[in-house]
Fold:
Amino acid sequence: MKGIGTAAGNFLLKTKLFWGLAVLYGAGIVLSPVNRKGVNIFLEPGNQADVLRQVSNNGIIAVGMTLVILTGGIDLSVGSMMALGCMLCAMLLTLTGWTAASVTSIPILAIVSVFLCSYLVPLVATNLRRGSARPVEQAGMTTRLLGLVLGVVVAASLVWWTTSQLQTKFGVLSVLITVPAVGLAIGGLTGLIISKGRLQPFIVTLAMMVAILGVARLLGGETAAVYPVYTGSNATDQFDILRALVLQVIPVPGIFFLVAVLTFGFILKYTSFGRYIYAIGGNEQAARLAGIRVDQIKTAVYAIAGMLASLAGVLYTAQYRQGKPDAGTGAELDAIAAVVIGGTNLMGGKGSMTGTFVGVLIFGFLTNILLLKNINSNIQFVLKGAIILAAVLLQEGQIGLWWKRLRARTKKVSTDGPRKDEVHFLQKLR
Amino acid sequence: MSLPDSPSQPPQRLALEMRQISKSFGPTQVLRDVDFALRPGEIHALMGENGAGKSTLMKIAGGLIEDFEGQILVDGQPVHLASPRDATRAGIAMIHQELSLVPELQVDENIFLGQEKLQSLFLVDRRNQIQAARDVLRTLDFQGKVQVPVSQLRVGEQQLIEIAKALVAKARILIMDEATSALSINETDRLFQVIRRLAEEGVAIVYISHRMEEVFALAHTVTVLRDGRRIGTVPGKDATRRELIRMMVGREIQEMLAEDKSATRTAKPMLEVRNLSLEHPAPTPSRPMLVQDISFSVGAGEVFGLGGLLGAGRTEVLQVLYGLHPGTSDGNIWIEGKPVQILGPVQAKARGIALVTEDRKRDGLVLSAGIDRNIGLPVMRTLTHLGIVLPGKEKELATSIIRQLNIHARDPEQVTGSLSGGNQQKVVVGKCLVTKPRVFLLDEPTRGIDVGAKAEIYRLIGQLADQGLAIVLVSSELPELMLLCDRILVLREGRPTALLDRSEFSQETILEYASPGGAIQPEFLKLETTV
Structure:
């Protein structure tokens, strides 16, 4: 019986995050106001879709943040990266010709595509045959050349395609390719500085956070203006697709979020890249000595975080129909909070994408409930902070420990020698 | 049975008494109703294989573990030790395997850390503190400087600083966990003298060690734990090696006998090293380089030893061979007659070199990950297709290594942090074996592991040599080095001083060549004058 009890206990312990979400969801139902028709507002499909829409941006950033934190790092620059993505997106959509946005992003797009092709093609080519895995360095000259040529071809066609759109403004697809490419490049640069310079991620990404925000503001020009994006008048109609509802319930940003969670959840769990991320976070030195290219993995992780953050910027533009440099203010902190609520250890090496997914939802539903209850937004901040602390304390099992300690302190200690029923072992010895 | 004679008057009160201590971590019970008694002035050795519960028991006494069952009495008074601070107040001081000094702080600052001598409310009275530190250290025969950061001191000296810290805190009970595992023989001898004198002054000492010789040399009393139970307490002078091993292991173990295999070794060199050197980050006139002009060759199937005191540059030689010092190191390396360049662990692995580092927790294992993940880590490529892990492959590999190396684990996915030291070490070795190395570098492979696991590692080294690997072994335990190696190159302050054949092995010879100011073989002497 006891075995069953502990098994159930373990199960509860392992799934405590989901229970937390369930409790919060229940609280949402109970606390929610009811509209005139007697429908629970919280449960309305429209409200549920809203929650998913609102968490999507934070969620997409949190996915990248999970990878970074699992390696034992942190990325404070994602908020600024989102702002940059947002500005780039709005400018590419609404302005024609060579503007600050297109001048910077098109060459970066070309460089990124050359690099990715010349890295990925040999990697895939050398490992196509099952069980004959070899490192990229052993790739033949031809495959390397093939990768490079393909990269140049891809880059050239992308440049031709995007420049041809300069006169008529960018379409949805070209924005969705160009902006994340810029995020990938800048994130990769951050990763390179961290890994090659053996620097603290905190300070490097703090510097990048400030610098990227500056770039985002510079892009906007003297006025640091807000760029309104009116689909149909100053931007393409198709852009509306990024704020549409699929099957009239699922918002498109939510789909981006879910795809990101599934993709990177799969990568974390089932690929060698994922294994290396956990290993680096668990013990970077051990990973290095095991012959893992720690620098490459770290660079890739920051590149992915940058890419996802700038993608969130594009979705922000679609959602709020504007590009502005303060789009991502505080986004890095929300993402870190969601990751940590999801049980990922800030020291690295421990955590999961499932946790982050649930953490993002907890954060989203909490905001939604407070909103529906019409609670003062400043009080909302205080409550959110309290919830984050409580979640982390629960995750780390500290509260249980405090309880035990309290019990131990109050327990009476007998002062009268050995118990009578106990033959003292020293006497036995004698 | 009578209690052993202690050097001072037989006191009535026990310095420390632990009654019926039980403790479990999750489902595993590490201590069951253990009684432990320590008298003032007694040196009490605590022995047992890894995982027997020695460290846990002493962590409880040191206030590092607070939720346990049982009772602790200090000087006959029940105490509640919920933190190291409580333990310090009760007069208990712990000296860990890993020293707990702040490397950047100076000697006196470390000694008085947390108990600073104050001038007024906040100002530290450095002059007074330095004087007090000198006084304490004089009683410990410490000859170094006081106003230097402790990072500049030798490990043996740092150990004395730890003891001084305990004395300043007026500790009456001193717990030493594997205190000598990083010390040379001279330093160990000096430490023993200090320990004996402290005991004469009435300090009670718990001494945890794996080294049988030390226990015989030092202990008044020996308590043996096995599987969380107290197996027995015997007077140190009556204990025999055989009996203690039987108590610890629960069965008789044949003492390892050296067999001379030099005749069967082939002459074909697997690894050849010429003029290996490594720059010193802070060179001094007496030590311009960390490693200087080291040349040797190791045959296939040979076990080649690097001897010397701590800091002689043995570890650094292995590190350079594994490519951990690109840019600051120099020299030529051939593997199977082919010149190779090794700029990092990636190349080292590709050229068939594997390294077991001296600190398995710091460099060897991802402690938060399972055995399968750790063993699969260096060979992920062979376990994946297009980057996706082939299902079951990691577990399969881990299971075969677990069987091959006789690792005691619940299942291949068990987190390595929860394994005992010996089993962790086997996982590290396994992690290297899966890369199918030709050259196997082992740095202190048996540090801090129990007798049983040690014997298994010895056997494994023999097997690997028989399979034609070239093995380079670094060990601070001379008997171990002499038992396993076919030849030993002795280093002193980064330079080679002697190359010994099996017939020339003796502890005295090795120490003579290893100690500063000692002898140098003629061929190395010539080398030194030309430098």
